[in-house]
Amino acid sequence: MAVYRDKRRSTRPWVIDISYVDRRTGHRKRYFRNAKLQTAEGARSEERGLIVTFTEKGFVPEPEDVAEGTVQKEELTLKQAYELYEKTVMPTLKPSTAIGYEKNLQAYLLPRFGDWLLSDIDRAAMIAFDQELARDGLSPATRNNIVMPLRTIVRNAVELGKHHGHPDFPRLNRVQSKVYEPPSAVDVDAVLAAADTHAKIAFGLAAYAGLRASEVIGLRWVNVNLETSLLFVREAMTYGIVVTPKSGHQRALPIAPPLQAILEEAKKRNTSEYVAPSSKGKPWTHGGLRRAFDRAVDRAKLPHTRLHDLRHFFITQCFVGGAGGPTVQKLAGHCHLSVTQRYAHTTETLMRDAVQVFSKRLG
After folding, report:
1. Are 46 and 20 within 8 A, CB to CB?
2. pLDDT confidence band for 180 (50 / 70 / 90)
3. Nearest to residue 243, comparing CAs of 230, 251, 234?
4. What is 185-350's CATH number?
5. Start-end ranges of CATH 1.10.443.10 in the chain?
6. How far apart are the first and last CA of the chain?
7. Which of 72, 92, 345, 351 is packed most tightly, with the most Cβ within 10 A?
8. How far apart are CA 158 and CA 166, in angstroms?
9. Contact status, residue 214 vs residue 318, Cβ threshold 8 Å
10. Which residues, 6+ apart, have CB-to-CB distance to 264 below 8 Å?
11. How far is Cα 293 from Cα 205, in angstroms, rounded to an integer?
């Protein structure tokens, strides 16, 4: 039980924060409200009165309590809050985000917490859940992705006035920055040589223009100018739905010579509006494109790698070619330069070679 000023809000109000077990139901509860009188003494006096009431009645009265033991509004379970979220927020999410949330809800969250009242999903419950996921071998990033929908659903219920608790979730797990090891130029050539005709176009766009899979799938000829050697990333396609690129911004890319040759050849025989359609003339699915890439890697007799690693190859080769961070950021379509800089480690060998000039001078 505590009285303090809420520093997370600009007005820094005095709040009363009381956690207790409701003796009527046996459920854990949390009373979190702005004090009626916004002074330190006034807030403490109100808290003392609430504690006396709890001692006598076994619960702390909420604004909805119209009489002892009678609650006007029933508290939501996570399943009910999720149904509310489906109607109000889910339609505004990107398809990839909505589908990812749905998968984690059905696989992890609803089986575990679906019938729990929102006030029962507290800090201790979330920490215990995260520890179970960790024991199952899930990475910190994966565990964060699993609990994110739950946090969002609860906060949505609060914002809509359907839940009067104050979420006290633990911080998300700290995720270490990744160091990317892209395929070599020899490996990329081998994959392209082993790829099916239609798949080769898609892989070329990833390797020589750095396009994400959704951008490859959604690229149309209207956004490619072979005369000026420019292509424009204006849209992407996820689960058959046209969306904006991941960064939210359009970008123009110069077409690299190897890609120019691939696209010119494709233009001669391609009757689809899409630059890199599947063999059926329709846009690839993410799963179909991934399987085509796996087949090409197997034919090339290379170790397992991912389609997205072709994009890593493009970014690191731009650094090797001498491009600066801001330039590579624009080419890759990253929102933040810090993301781009993760790839800069690949130039370490070049930097080591560069400083050898001083040993030559000493010699």
Report:
1. no
2. low
3. 234
4. 1.10.443.10
5. 185-350
6. 73
7. 345
8. 8
9. no
10. 226
11. 13
Q: What DSSP character marks residue 108?
A: I
Q: Per residue in 124-134, pLDDT tens?
A: 889 999 999 99
User: Mutual orientation of helices 308-320 and 325-332 as an angle, nearest 10°?
Assistant: 150
Answer left, alpha or beta for residue 210, where phi above 0 means left and psi between -120 and 50 means alpha: left
For the chain, helix, strand, coil in percent to 5 are 55, 10, 35
Do 319 and 344 touch, CB atoms closer than 8 A?
yes
DSSP three-state, residue 66? strand
Q: Which amino acid is at 149?
A: P
CA distances from 3 to 105, 158, 222 (A): 35, 21, 62
Mean pLDDT computed over 189-199 = 92
**Residue 82 predicted with pLDDT over 90:** yes
Summarize pLDDT for 2-46 with one digit per residue, the tens.
Answer: 888 887 776 788 888 888 888 888 888 888 888 877 888 878 888
Q: Give CA–CA dist 112/106, Å, rounded.
A: 10
Residue in this structure with the two tokens 């990744």, named with its chain if needed: 178
Closest CA to 250 of 283, 215, 216, 220: 215
Token pair belonging to 234: 């204006």
- Residue 137: left if φ>0, alpha if ψ -120 to 50, beta else—which one? left
Question: Using an 8 Å Cβ cutoff, are 288 and 187 in contact?
Answer: no
Q: Write down the CATH number for the domain with range 82-159.
A: 1.10.150
> How many residues does the structure list for the chain?
363
Q: Residue 79 carries which side chain, given as an amino acid letter?
A: K
Cβ atoms of 147 and 129 closer than 8 Å:
yes
Residue found under tokens 């233009």: 267
Q: Which among 138, 274, 297, 129 is positioned nearest to 202, based on CA atoms?
A: 274
Count the Cβ atoms, other than its own, within 10 Å of residue 18: 17
Find residue 224's DSSP bridge partners. 231
Alpha helices for 160-246 (secondary structure H): 185-194, 197-209, 213-218
Domain with CATH 1.10.150 in the chain: 82-159
